[in-house]
Amino acid sequence: MLGLMMDMPLLVSQLIRHADRHHGATEIVSKTVEGTIHRYTYRDAHKRARQLANALKRLGVGPQDRVATLAWNGHRHFEIYYAVAGSGAVIHTINPRLFPDQINYIGNHAEDKVVFYDTTFAPLIDKLKSQLKSVKHWVPMNDEYDRLLDAQSDDFEWPSFDENTAVCLCYTSGTTGNPKGALYSHRSTIIHAYASALPDAINLSARDVILPVVPMFHVNAWGLPYACALVGAKLVFPAQHLDGKSLHELFESEEVTMSAGVPTVWLGLLNYMKEKKLRFTTLKRVVIGGSACPPAMIRAFQEEYGVEVLHAWGMTEMSPLGTVTTFKAKHRKWSAEERTRLQNKQGRVLFGVDLRIVDENGRDLPWDGKAFGDLQVRGPWVIKSYFKAEGGDPLKDGWFPTGDVCTIDADGYIQVTDRSKDVIKSGGEWISSIDLENIAVAHPAIAEAAVIGVKHPKWDERPIIVAVKKPGQEVSKDDLLRFYEGKIAKWWMPDDVVFVKELPHTATGKLSKLTLRQQMKDYKLGAG
Ligand code: AMP
User: Fold this and answer.
1) Domain span at residue 492?
2) pTM (2 d.p.)
């Protein structure tokens, strides 16, 4: 016997329709690429998305055609998200920080038909034009884009179709080999938006003013353009103006209550605020993820600025949210110190995602906060295959192997100790590079640090620190190593420190240990 409830597919167009009808006057504010401020409302955005849907039809975009963007966070990008998705095509958000060769590869692989781009990327677009064979139209997101919309009526009925239809294509950064595409569906996108908005996830509401620092080309700004429409939150977009000064000004002038981004961008903001002795007037929460949030950053936000940190973990293959560190009732009794320690973990799973850790033979490991193994996940917003089946079947017994090594404690909080490719094996035991990096960056003179394993004749591998000093600060090798004493087991003590001017990063702002290991390939322990 089937349930007798209406058979309504979950479609992304419903989000913008809802935001228009129930939060029509709520603002979407964008700092433009040119540096001016643009303001309009969900109602205006919905109207322009309908005009754009008509324009896409004129450009010959049909169901499931791929429409790419090379764009910063802004109102036009937001309209493209909804126009493309709502009309049944697929939006492909390209990360402009990828190497040009990778962009060529993914543009051709996705067979993009139209490319919308911010004018800051014009030089890149000039190079791409001869390479991307499938592209019929290149549209700069300036007056030309506006004229394209203005020529169209806003009379457009969002079509209804199967909720499992593809809506958005995001490629992984592809540290080894070519990037692979994660293809989300309308259904997965809506369920992910519901789950991420919950109080124990990232806690979004119509009372919030949300500024996604995380780019709309990095896993859909972690789904915020969808989740904000779902709850009717005011949105603030920063374009490419992500330096400390620009961000702080926008946070203050638009009364931002919540933001989200990777640790590197917060580092810039916190340094600027400290230097200028500034405060936040309205900011209450920041979501920090994409790579491990150093405890020193959690403390700075919470203790110095009174801003709550939500440490989150996820990945492109998971739309992206998997876990967030939020407290349970019992933690109310815990000391501030204990609570902060819990926040160093990546958190509890969102309902909908199932997870486990397994050993090298695929056997389940205990949830005791000590045993660590490969983290596997499954759920309605986790991929089952990459676009065009690249790389074959990624699943193991129905689970997606994340490539992260984690512990899980009895309350279900995960802690990522490493990417499986980055673990340091010393004397048959594993050393967590993330733990060692967190200690290094807690030192007042260290700006950024990476810990990698180097070959050792007796122990197989030993950890060394590669660190960048803060401008104008001094610290010696021995001082830094002394800073570890009492904080770790003796055998975890790094064997050396190498100071460098800068560390290599990936297109999504993470430390690129692959590149770092290549840069350090001639390094020998004990040689210096
Ligand atoms: P991406 O698909 O580019 O977003 O990368 C996903 C990967 O980033 C994960 O598999 C983790 O290795 C890493 N990651 C994301 N969030 C965190 C976090 N909070 N702590 C540690 N690693 C993280």
Assistant:
1) 422-519
2) 0.95
